[in-house]
Amino acid sequence: MQITRRGFLTMTGAIGGGVALSSLGLNLNPTRAYADELSKMDRIKIAKQVTTICCYCSVGCGLVCSVDKATGKIFNIEGDADHPINEGSLCAKGAGFFDLTEANKHRLTKVLYRKPYGTEWEEKDWDFALERMARLIKDTRDKGFVKRNAKGELVNRCENIGHYGSSNVDNEECWLISVKSRALGLVYIDHQARV
Amino acid sequence: MTNHYCDLKNADVILIMGSNAAEHHPIAFKWILRAKEKGAKIIHVDPRYTRTSARCDFHVPLRSGTDIAFLGGMINYILENNKHFKDYVLNYTNASFIVDSGFSFKDGLFSGYDAKKRKYNKDTWAFEKDGRGVPRRDMTLAHPRSVFQLLKKHYSRYTLDKVSSITGVTKENLLKVYEIYASTGVPDKAGTECYALGWTHHTVGSQNIRTMSIIQLLLGNMGIAGGGINALRGEPNVQGSTDHCILYGNLPGYLKMLPASLGTLEKYLHKYTPVSKDPQSANYYSNYPNFFVSFLKSLWDDKATRNNDFGYDWMPKIDDGKAYSTMHMFDAMYAGKIKGFFAIGADPAVSTPNSNKVRKALENLDWLVGENIFNNETYEFWRGPGVDPTRIKTECFLLPASASMEKEGSQSNSGRWVQWKYKAADAPGDAIPVGEIEIKILAEVKKLYEKEGGPNAEAIVNLKWDYLDNKGHMDVLKVAQQVNGRFTKDTVIEDKAKKTRTEFKKGQLVPTFGMLKDDGSTACGNWIMSGSFTADSVNKMKSRGKEDPTELGLFPNWSFAWPVNRRILYNRASCDVSGKPYNPKRKLLEWTGEKWVGDVPDGPWPPMADKAKGKYPFIMQRDGLGALFGPGMVEGPFPEHYEPLESPLEKNPMSSQRINPAVEIFKSDMDKVASASDKFPYVCTTYSCTEHWCTGALTRWQAWLLEAMPELYVEIGDELAKELKIKNGERIKVTSIRGEAPCVAMVTKRFKPFQVEGKTVHQVGLPFNYGWLFPKDGGDSTNVLTPTVGDANTFCPEYKAFMVNVEKL
Fold first, then answer.
1. pLDDT value of position A44
2. Helices A13-22/A29-46 angle, 10° precision
């Protein structure tokens, strides 16, 4: 059973009863879970609410992130009841959206670099990575640049660098990717639309 | 989608074919069930019985890869039984056009085929024209070379017996679907189709969809509430990423990539600006030069001038007729021709067909740049199964990115709603948005070219690339406004029809793409997004009004829908030639005598009964009408059944052409094929599940979801399992000629054997959500099994029909 914030409000009356029953030796775990939800409820009431759109399929469901004003951290994400498509409901993936936040210990948080023939990643900073990547991009592009094709037609293209992705970044980012790729002269350009 | 998600509730019949909507698009399915609650019939046609089937009125199993045969039979049924919507077909489609006398179709091939090149010369796939250059028409539809008669003849071959034998669907089931679906060919009924990857992942994927488009035109289901063809797409912004064309063949807004043979801007615009001599055809693409030149201006700003063809020479150009899709990219990488690679928010080592070849290809790279929120199998290819890192030279960068709710920007759903999302929190650690990473990488490259120069350095040095704010972060509004477009000088726009004159200042935003110009006075990153802001910079993507004046669920004040906030495409076809709604119960649009009211119409012109000012409804088509005859496709103007590259049949029952004649064959030593082979006797398909998303590259890292769906399995029908003595839960392996996938057997009643051409054919299926990196015991990608082959038009790989064996360990 999934407890939504609104659904939960109507259930809070049952909690007092649950506590009373504990002295009879009944399993209290569900009651504790409700109590945890209750404290989250109080936090939600005073939280900043920020709307977003789901990052899985392309139905475009609305979500509300509750952000703790003191820490700036997201502590709850749920379906946006005001959204005309999902009307507050979500699928299993959308309902688990919170596990994409920094609370997930698997999130990448550092620039990682693997040197040629290396066996591990090394942590680096942005300056190192940007400078090194720019050098590699320019050297590769300049070395393989095709000014004219076999027929002698002017083509100004870079065939030795490929680009893949992404359909899970925002429109403005997609446009920047599209433009960056063309400015570099890439022609092997593709993303998940085909898969 | 021609329509949008909330509109599904307006349908009377919904055919779900090529999709498992209940599991993969649960919230879309809510709208399908809402139609059902109101009495709509819901039909599921799919090889496997799924949760979608369980909630539909009935399920019809068909063999993977035979959709065109199934739908071709429906076209035959509609025409034989006179079920088409006559008024619509006559007025709104090219049924009456007379086709060139040289056009023919014989034994699976259309006229103009070159077997050596595996390509067609399409010269005869054309219409006869009258003295004015307008397509000749026979309004009685009786002419033997009319599109209508040719269509009838073509699909008369798709008899019930034939279709049943190819698809494995019983004749009773065929008739049941045909009758119910064809019942929507009347003015007051709407039928819609929902598809997903189950239709696109075939060597005939585009033609699957086109066959349905023909049915929708015959039944008058295009452009109406509750109608259309609706792709339930699978990634959050796959609509937007396609609109912005991170694709080899197109530029933002579906403008054509420049072919090498078109050496000047003039030649290019001449080729891609369609001309219609028919005064009633709006031929909206006659505005092509305005969109294209404005795009070039968005790249190079003041540096793009009329004198340098707005930078046309700086653009890369592709060789004519050559494709550069994912499969081509990995083929070139495997051959050692690609040295550097960006993999952004993606896991192609898992998602690309013939993954073993892809993983070998990655070993040839000098460098790889990854940008993502989690690690994945692509970024770690250098220590994948059987790979010795100390022998891999590739220099790898894995850059931490912000998650979706940690950045501001817009996302487009399949219904073309462009919705604004807000930043809820900072990303953890050093993570920044992908857009910001991209800006910073190219800015660094730009510095090098400014200092050192290099080939075609102008393209980089002159690029407008000032999208960081004064704190050094991505200025998302600045990018969004560049995409929308702005005036590059003070401009006056006169509208003669409305008798208005509007002044715009330099720098002001262009409020609609109708105002874009080909003279350099406007810059616009993507014309279809023009109008996402008002001239005064009001961001319409942020709109959250829930008014619904038509009561059809259009929600015109919620977000922005391209183009120009139109919610249902081709909507003028919902009215008769005088502009009166065909279905008064679902009034999408109506002509008052002065103007259209309802949805944003497909152009302001009067309906076509007004011979002086009226226009045909399909304004993006050169001829203004729905294309029953579609010469744009590479394998023929009418869809034809061909077997998948790998099939259980030695021969195509329809013709001597076993596979799609226009499909490209990849020939590397790792591209092996085994069709109609005893070693690989079972048809296989791949799919997803509710708890995982795509390769699982985001969802496998989430404990809640992983616990629900922990590892790779294969679904095997109980009859086949009995034959092979395989028990439910047993660890087995699925093999193809390209690789093997160890997995758990799920013995199920959901797959039933098919009777095909007199023999029993079994089909199995696996999810595609796993990879070796995490979880360690979850199994690897099912794409080690799939072949490198794709649709002849789009190069979507054939993941949905290939041949395997199922073996005990």
1. 81
2. 150
Q: What is the pLDDT of residue A25?
A: 53
- Which residues 610-649 of B are in CB contact (within 8 Å) with A? none
What's the ipTM? 0.98
Residue indicated by tokens 């539809």: B141
Helix, strand, or coil (residue A53): strand
Alpha helices by DSSP H, listed for B475-567, are: 476-484
Q: Is B794 in CB contact (< 8 Å) with chain A? A: yes
Tokens coding A58: 């392309």
Residues of chain A with pLDDT under 50: 1-23
Q: Is A157 on the interface with B (CB under 8 A)?
A: yes
Cβ atoms A163, B246 nearer than 8 A: yes
Q: Phi and psi of B533, rounded to 5°?
A: -120, 155
Inspect the interface and report whether the beta carbons of B476 and A121 lie closer than 8 Å. Answer: no
Q: Does B401 touch chain A (CB under 8 A)?
A: yes
Ranges in chain B, pLDDT < 70: none
Name which of A73, A85, A112 is nearest B5 (Cβ-Cβ): A85
Contact residues on chain B for A115, CB-CB shorter than 8 A: 395
Is the Cβ of B425 closer than 8 Å to some Cβ of chain A? yes
Q: Out of B248, B424, B429, name the one closest to residue A110 (CB).
A: B429
Residues of B in contact with A134 (CB under 8 A): 441, 444-445, 447-448
Q: In the prediction, which pLDDT does A42 show? A: 83
Residue-wise pLDDT tens digits, A23-38? 455 566 666 777 777 6
| b/e code B291-326 from CB counts within 10 Å (16+ = b) | bbbbbbbbbbbebbeeebbbbbbbbbbbbeeebbbb
**Are the C-beta atoms of B149 and B79 separated by less than 8 Å?**
no
Interface of B with A in 364-393 (CB under 8 A): 366-367, 369, 371-375, 382-383, 389-393
pLDDT at B15: 98
Query: How far apart are alpha carbons B666 and B361 in whole angstroms?
Result: 14
Per-residue confidence (pLDDT) for residue A30, from 0 to 100: 67
The total of other beta-carbon atoms located within 10 Å of residue B578's CB is 13
pLDDT at residue A26, as a whole number: 58
Give chain A's domains with CATH numbers.
Answer: 30-100 (2.20.25.90), 111-194 (no CATH)
Nearest to B27 among A86, A117, A162 (CB): A86
